[in-house]
Amino acid sequence: MAQQGQAAAQQAQQPAQQAPAQQAAQVVAPVATTDKLRGTPPDIFKGNRKHSETFLHQFNLYWGLNESHEVMQVPYFRAMYALSLMRGPNIDDWVNNQVLLLRELTTRAQNPIDRNDPNLWNDFNTTVAQKTVPMFCHFGKSDLE
């Protein structure tokens, strides 16, 4: 019986000893809230297909650094921010059309889409990554060499 009592005491101590180790593993550094976005913003995307993948990689990194910021948390604002980084004569019309589309989708009188709807970002990201950027990009001779 004495052995059973010792075994029970040891088992009772094990969770108590494991708890601090588990708590230490779960401690996450608090994210400082600030109005400013952190890190280096992505380069301006000018519509050159050669740079589209780099732009998307830079944007994803920037998003990861700022995922607790409202601009990155709300899909509507995230897409608008990405659009604000796209400018130049080869892409301005497309960017303006996307801005107007996002505003129309979220402000129309009937069935407006909530700005927090993840489909706003998913649809935008798919369009940029797979369809629109390659179709609307300017290709100079040097781009194709």
Q: Output the structural class.
A: mainly alpha
> How large a portion of the residues is in β-strands, by DSSP E?
under 5%
Rg (CA only): 25 Å
Query: What is the string of SSEs from the N terminus onward?
Result: HHHHHHH
Short description:
By secondary structure, the chain is mainly alpha-helical. Helix content is 63%, strand content 0%.
Write the layout of secondary structure elements.
Layout: H1 2-26, H2 52-65, H3 70-73, H4 75-84, H5 92-107, H6 118-136, H7 141-144
Helix pairs in contact: 4-5, 4-6
Can you walk through the features of this model?
By secondary structure, this protein is mainly alpha-helical. The protein has 7 helices and no strands. Residues 135-145 have low confidence and may be disordered.
List the keywords.
145 residues, 0% strand, disordered C terminus, mainly alpha
